[in-house]
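A student in our group prepared the protein record below, which I am reviewing. Here is the record exactly as it was handed to me.
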Amino acid sequence: MALMITDECINCDVCEPECPNGAISQGDEIYEIDPDLCTECVGHYDEPQCVEVCPVDCIPKDPEHEETHEELLAKYERLCG
C-alpha cells in the first residue's frame, strides 16, 4: 500500500529529501506522494522514512493504493533495476 499525505501537512519540508524513490513532491497546497513511486521504503529501509521524520503524523497508508509487501518489493526492484 502506498502512503499518502493528509491535509494536516504543515509543509515543513522534512519528508521530501528522505524519500529514496523521489515519490514526494510539493503539490498545490501540501506535499504529495506519487503512488507509482512509493514503496513505503521497502527495499531501502525497515520503516517508511517520511513517516519517521514527520512531526505532525500526517502520512497514513493510502486505502486507494493497497499493495502487499511482495508487490512493494517488486515495485522497488522495477524502480531500481
Notes: The chain has one domain: 16-80. The beta strands are 24-26, 31-33.
